[in-house]
Amino acid sequence: MALTEDAGRVVMILKTRDFDHIAQDFLTRHSDAVVVHIGCGLDTRFERVDNGRVEWYDLDLPEVIELRRKL
User: Quick one: pLDDT at residue 5?
Assistant: First the structure.
């Protein structure tokens, strides 16, 4: 069971890295983009890919956004 959980974590890390690279590539080509991250949950992608010019909106249910503010 532990091996399966470890493999799942590795897959999640690799998927996150790939999505970050896709977002960074997009922001390189469209530095003044407006991004609407629907269903953001507790995702921290903005902090990892912010180019200093993108206008980024994290959208989720009110209780999720409140938790993000607290954290």
Answer: 85
Spell out the long-range contacts of 25-29 with Cβ–Cβ below 8 A and sequence spacing 24 or more.
Answer: 27/51, 27/54
Q: Which of 23, 60, 15 is nearest to 41 (CA)?
A: 60
Taking a C-beta distance cutoff of 8 angstroms, is the pair 37, 58 a contact? yes
Condensed to tens digits (0 to 9), the pLDDT of residues 4-33 reads: 888 999 999 999 999 999 999 999 999 999
Contact call for residues 32 and 58 (beta carbons, < 8 A): no
Which amino acid is present at 48?
R
Contact in structure between 26 and 7 (CB atoms under 8 Å): no
**Dihedral angle computed from the Cα positions of residues 10, 15, 20 and 23, in that order, rounded to the nearest 10 degrees:** 180
